[in-house]
Amino acid sequence: MSHKETVSRTLLVAFLVCIVCSVLVASAVVLLKDDQLKNKQLDRQRNILAAAGLYDGTQSNQEVGELFNRFELVLVDMETGLVATDDVLAAAGVDISKYDQRKAAKDPSLSIKLDSAEDIASIKRQARFSQVYLLRDDGQLESVVLPVHGYGLWSTLYGYLAMEGDGSTVKGLGFYEHAETPGLGGEVDNPKWKALWPGKLAYNDAGEPALHVIKGKVDPASADAVHAIDGLSGATLTSNGVSNLIRFWTGERGYQTFLQRVREGAI
Ligand SMILES: Cc1cc2nc3c(=O)[nH]c(=O)nc-3n(C[C@H](O)[C@H](O)[C@H](O)COP(=O)(O)O)c2cc1C
Fold it and tell me: Which whole number is the average pLDDT over 100-121?
């Protein structure tokens, strides 16, 4: 050890290195926060467009923004199944431009506790207001994009179910977050499986929820074919989770009343 290399000097250098590094990390977090938020928002927009069949990965960020701006955001009051009026939102202290449904689902004052019999998607609580995106063309409702989520085998799957303007025909389904096993439950992201959804009918002639995932392959000749989706092979538990969450969100506690209004042409 040279006479300059003392224990206190070593500790001082280590301390200064720690300070410099923490300043660097903290500044990176602060400086990149805006970019992270923008990317998160862009990602959400892409997922909403993808569910509605409007994004295939080739569009630029600007095009995504422009397409997304054609959508109208409404908050559906899950207590009534109707679009929440300004009065209802004001009474609940909700600002539509700042509303975050996933945060709200964890906030007892902004969410509804589900009892176990109705909680078929295993989500425990649901946000009172759901962020639903409407796309009109010349005043005609073209797409209704509905946030959905529910438990699979290992994780909660979060995604969007898009419906045609008739309120019953599926336009697409896509999950943007889950932790199912790649190659098994993770096949929910497989474009071939996702291609099975468009054209299926969410409701039967009596207006009851009918869309579901079966075990095995759908027999195209069966009466149920129009409501049924092939299960993922080797991943029946995730498939059941998807089936349950679809049943929940198309059901009474989900968007059944709202979609009935869509089918009646009232939206
Ligand atoms: C390591 C591991 C990961 C698994 N991941 C999943 C999964 O993500 N989703 C799923 O449904 N099944 C998964 N399984 C399989 C389930 O335990 C179960 O066997 C399967 O869902 C039954 O589906 P099948 O009747 O189509 O074979 C996994 C099994 C193992 C050993």
Answer: 96
